Amino acid sequence: MNLTIVEYPDKRLREKSKEVNSFDETLHKLLDAMYPMMIETNGIGLAAIQVAHPVRVLILNIPDEEGNQPDENLIEIINPVVIEKDGETTYQEGCLSVPQFYEDVKRHETIKINYQDRHGNTQSLEADGLLAIAIQHEMDHLEGILFIDKLSYSRRKKFEKEYKKIQKERKGK
Description:
With 173 residues, the chain is of the alpha+beta class. The chain has helices spanning 25-40, 129-142, 153-172, and strands spanning 45-47, 57-60, 75-86, 89-95, 98-107, 110-116, 122-128. The protein contains 3 helices and 7 strands.
């Protein structure tokens, strides 16, 4: 399966993802293709909508202390639902769909989610720190929300101006 990252301002990023009902070979192929795409693009998380598949699927692999992302740390999350959230934290986020732009975003400090694995088995996960932030960021993608949507009006205007400049520079290369 050949995947490419959908980049802002592509309207597909605003699409709400549909629940997964078939935990079949098609889903497994998507998951198996998403992982190398995420690693090759230096991501720590990737939602299926970011590779033009509007289904409630996301993957995460938080780097260890040495900055490595071993396969065994991969988390595949399908049909996630937040069941608990607590606290508040601010973290400088980036996004594979909004390249070269980073901004502080407020998120819940800890969360607990229920989800399904690639075989449809129900799982539960409690997360804090970067994992909690990454889960919330990727779950926003499933709702058609980008991290830039969480910026204040003035920061959002600044982003639009800077992003247009970056896009022009990238096209010039």
